Every structure is written in structure tokens, then in C-alpha cells.
Amino acid sequence: MPSKIGIHGIRPNRIGAFIEKVVAAGAHVATVKSVDDLGWLAHVKQVSPETVTVGRVNRVVDIPLAGDLRKEVREALEQVLPQWEANRESVDYWEVINEMDPPSVDGHRKLAEAMFHFMDLAEAEGFKLALFSYSMGVPEWEEMEAIVETGVFARAKQGGHIFALHEYGNPINVWFGDPIPPRPPHPERGPLACRYRWWYDEFLTPRDEVIPLVISEAGTALGIKELGLTPRQWVDQIVWYDERLREDPYVIGCHLFTVGPVHPWFHFDYEDALDLLAERIIALKDEPNPIREVEGGEGPEKPDVPLKPRTPYERHYLLLPPGAGWEWVEACRGYWEKFRVTIGGSADDAGWGPGLKARIVTAVNPQRWPTDLREFLNAHYPGSTYDPIRAETPQKLKAILDRRVEEDKRLG
């Protein structure tokens, strides 16, 4: 779709007429989102089947992340499933939380673990999700790293789910090109607008874990009326943002916040700008999208790294599966104390090691990975010794590893 402009609506107001105008001109609106008042999305799908629809039920905004994550997720979903079911045919993806920002790296890791449970339970009911829905400027770099390392995006790719983020700014391109600590500046990204590119360029593309993205809230961080902008001045900012989104094929579109507002969002209402937005979408209907060439960060030049170790040694990597939390790491304590293995969650890291005398990959619960791990290692890191373990709980994993330690002691 040439334009990535989409609509966020709380009440439908003139959204239906806007969709019809665009479709009558031979185009379509990339994506539309509704909150709570979901019934009007059926009309959107009827008029414009190509439009991707996203829904959110405001009854659930966050979850505690304080105990049994699967139980917390199940309780949250039980509150919204009736409305999901009632709108099954008209909503493509469901947001499950809104703008959670746990207070630590471990909190974001737990949130990623909760997403595994959300996906499992939603798939059992036949629904697809828009994951995370982080607010503008969230999360920080080290939190991104921890989230990605859980394998949550590989799992989402396997299940056909998408990623959701929020991006705002006054103006919308404020600080574009500035860094997010500790990364250096980059001319095609920013800490607010196009912050999503830090995720995709640095993590998801290199890991082959790209999933579709919606910016499920977007626009100016103050409302069009608060800023004293004319509809044309506001749309000019949106056009700048749209040009950036069009460069990234994985972006479905953005949901401009908001039409049909309720208290306290009235000053965000941009209904007077809908005709100008329609003109923009229609004008681009036959224009090909420019594709941005993706490059990594522009950090300081790194010294050459030898492809062989300083001295040959044997490497034993204990590979934990996507979604494994600290309780799984703790289960490996005795095994690590005995064998000093490397414990981690990256299959590439586990298999890598040119010039080593031996590479042993003990893979815990390999069935949790989206591809066959044995085939993956044989294809990309031939020569690895593959050692699978299946354990339903951290306690069972500890028992298996403790038996291996005792067996080693008996053999002397």
C-alpha cells in the first residue's frame, strides 16, 4: 500500500465516510483501529476488505507480572474474550495490553514471557495478537536486548502475530536523527519518530525475526487544537511521517490518534483533517513505495576479530529455549558449577565457534524453537554436537542435570 496512513477511532463519527471516499477513488486505508466501540469495524471490513483492522478492549490495560504469569494472562483474557468473539470476523489483530513499562530489565523480560502465554492462549481460541503496545520512547536499549533474547519475536513469527508500538512528537519529527543511549546517533532513526527502526535494523532483521508492525498510536504529542495548528499544518507533519513509514515494507501502517474522542482526549480530534488525509492516500494509490536500505548502527569502528580462538578449547553451550526465565537459569546452577558451561538463549551463539576443538550444544526443550534445531545447527554450524533435553519444568531440568553431574562423579 503506497500510503501507510491509518485511523485510530474511539467512536466512528465520519470514519465510515472517509473509508468509502478512499475506496471509491480506487485506493484503500492501510489500517484502522478501534477501542471498545468495535462494532463499526464490521463496516470498514465490508467496504474495504484489504484494510487491516486492530481492536483493543480497554478493560485490560496491564497485568501484574508478580506471580504466575500464565495465570495472570488467562485472567486478563477471560475479561475480553467475549468481546473478541463477538467481533471475530471484523478484527484482524487484538492488542492485549496498553503502554506497560515495567521498572527494570527483568520486568521487560517478564513482560516478554507473558507474551508467550498470550500467544499460546489466543491461538487456542483462534485469534492473532498485536504484541507489546509500548508507549513513545519505551523501552530503553538494554531492555530491547533482553526482550529480543527471550525469542518472543521468533515465536510471534511462527504464530502469525504482529508488533505494536506508539510514536508521538511535537513536532512529530522532533529529535529525529538523535541517539537512544547508549547507541550513537543515526540519520534514519530517532528516540521518538522511527524508534521502531532500532528494533528492526539492530535486532529483528539480523536474526530473521521480522514480523509486521503497526504504530498503533501515532501523531503529535499534543492535540491539533492544543498546538493551534490548521488541518493543513497538522497533515504536513503526518505526510513527513508517512514518507518514513513507506520506506519499511514490514510496516503495515500507523493509527493516527484519534477520531471520535472521549474525555480527556477531545483536543486530539482531527476529524477536520480527514479530507486532506484522504487526498494524500488517493494521490499515492499508484505510487511504488521507496525501500530503505537497512544498515546497522553507526557506532565506533570495531577492531578485526580473529576467526580462530587464541588457543583451541572445547565449548559446551547450554541453550535455553525462547521464553525461559530466571527459574530455568537457576535450575542449571549445579551443572554450571561442575562443568562451567556457557548458559544462554541464542542458537547462533550456541553453534558459533570456528577453530574450536569441539562444540557441544545441550538444547533444553528444542521443541519450543520455531525451526528444527538439529537441522539449523547442521545447516549453519556443521560440526556441532547436538544434545537435546526435554524437561516440562525447571525442577525436572534440575533433576536431569543433577543426574548428569552424579554420573560424571561415578565415572571419575
Tell me what the structure shows.
Helix 1 links the parallel strand 1 (5-9) and strand 2 (31-35). The strands form two sheets. The protein has an eight-stranded parallel beta barrel. The protein folds into two domains: 5-283, Glycosidases (TIM Barrel); 314-411, Rossmann fold (3-Layer(aba) Sandwich), CATH 3.40.50.12090. The model is unreliable at 296-307 (pLDDT under 50). With 412 residues, it is an alpha/beta fold. The chain has 14 helices and twelve strands.
Question: What attributes characterize this protein structure?
Answer:
412 residues, alpha/beta, TIM Barrel, Rossmann fold, 2 domains, 8-stranded parallel barrel, 4-stranded parallel beta sheet, 14 helices, 12 strands, elongated
How do the strands and helices of this protein lay out in sequence?
Layout: E1 5-9, H1 15-24, E2 31-35, H2 41-47, E3 52-56, H3 69-86, E4 93-95, H4 105-125, E5 129-134, H5 141-149, H6 152-159, E6 162-168, H7 196-204, E7 213-219, H8 231-245, E8 251-259, H9 274-283, E9 314-319, H10 326-331, H11 333-339, E10 342-344, H12 347-351, E11 358-364, H13 373-380, E12 385-389, H14 394-411
Parallel strand pairs: 1-2, 1-8, 2-3, 3-4, 4-5, 5-6, 6-7, 7-8, 9-10, 9-11, 11-12
Helix pairs in contact: 1-9, 3-4, 4-5, 4-6, 5-7, 11-14
